[in-house]
Amino acid sequence: MARRDEMNAYCPSVRIGALVPLTRPGWVEAGQHLLFGLELAVRDVNEVGGIAGRPLELVVRDTAADPQRAVAAVDELAGLGVAALAGEYHSVVARAAAARADALGLPFLCSSAVLDALTEQPTEWVARLAPPQSRGWRTYADFLLGAGHSRIAVAAQPSVYWASGTRILRDYLAPRGGTVIELDMSVLTPAAVCDELVGHDTTALLLLVGHPEPAVSIVKSVRRDQRLAEIRIGAPAGQPEFAEWAALLGSDGAGVPFLRYLPERLTPLGARVETALRERLAEAPSFVAFEGYDTVAVLADVLRSHGADRARTAESWRRVAVEGTRGQIRFSRTPGISVWQWAWPPIQVVDRDPAEPDRFRILHAD
């Protein structure tokens, strides 16, 4: 502790800007997990000497799931002299932040957003830890086919992210005998969704909608409709990962498969981080918290090796080799992806066990 206090007293900090959704309509619970992961990693970095003797400091800005607010935050943080940007959960928000960071020449390590087209053109300034949506959602489609589902409805709200997910599912499933039926949630009520599911003779419904609403109301309506007793509800974007889902839905929220970016076994670092996060959160940490921790672990390694110069940070993505909480992190150029991408983050399809809703079951892994 004395060493950290000494750093703070005599050395100017190295600052990282953090973009996090902490108020509605952002997904606040995901934002809190992301922030706790980021903060824990900063604490750990400073406990072992910071960045060449200088303390690492997190400068947090709430995006509230608003792209324009995120862009303004990027401008502000750039003006404050941050060495790099970290974080963000919502893909549409991360896309706006990435475009602005690219324009300003500010390195951005995106923690959680998965939209493939994070920037319009290839960039050297942006890297990403989360798997691209195309890879994760194809894994989810493989799970659906393996479980015998070929007529799949998607209840979707208007959004670039949801539209991208629908397209990925349709393009992947069609050559394999699958059909995707779109239900427009800008015009349908949860009760009307039930009638559509019966009319189209679907066996699975995927929730491509906001949380808690209308996702919670749709689940409740489907669960209470006796005509749909055998239908499988899914939520690839991960809504059931968080405690709020279980609190709002109880047993109705169990048995809803979602994508989770965790390995079967965490690394030794991951096991230690899991314990610390559990104490801080007073609940099991989500994969988003581990993404936050890994983001700072990577940036700290880069900053120690190359200093706080922004251009040198951007040039170093290709040389990163960091042992994170979920495996070794390396970035590469992936076909169809415009940013530096950790190519092989772990992917699981998981649900809450109907017999014990606080326990997660791994149903499929890639």
Can you describe what's shown?
The radius of gyration is 21 Å and the shape is globular. The longest helix has 20 residues, at 28-47. The chain has 366 residues and is an alpha/beta fold. Strand 11 (322-323) and strand 12 (328-329) form a beta hairpin. The chain is built from twelve helices and 16 strands. Helix 2 crosses helix 10 (268-281).
Features:
366 residues, seven-stranded mixed sheet, 12 helices
Global Rg: 21 Å
Q: Total strand count, please?
A: 16
Largest sheet report: 7 strands, mixed
- The shape is globular
Uncertain spans: none
Task: Compile the SSE list and pairings.
Blueprint: H1 2-10, E1 14-20, H2 28-47, E2 56-62, H3 67-79, E3 84-87, H4 91-104, E4 108-110, E5 126-128, H5 133-146, E6 151-156, H6 160-173, E7 179-184, H7 190-200, E8 204-208, H8 215-223, E9 232-234, H9 243-249, E10 258-260, H10 268-281, H11 287-306, H12 310-315, E11 322-323, E12 328-329, E13 331-332, E14 340-342, E15 348-353, E16 356-365
Parallel strand pairs: 1-2, 1-3, 3-4, 4-5, 5-14, 6-7, 6-8, 8-9
Antiparallel strand pairs: 10-15, 11-12, 13-14, 15-16
Helix pairs in contact: 2-10, 2-11, 3-4, 5-6, 7-8
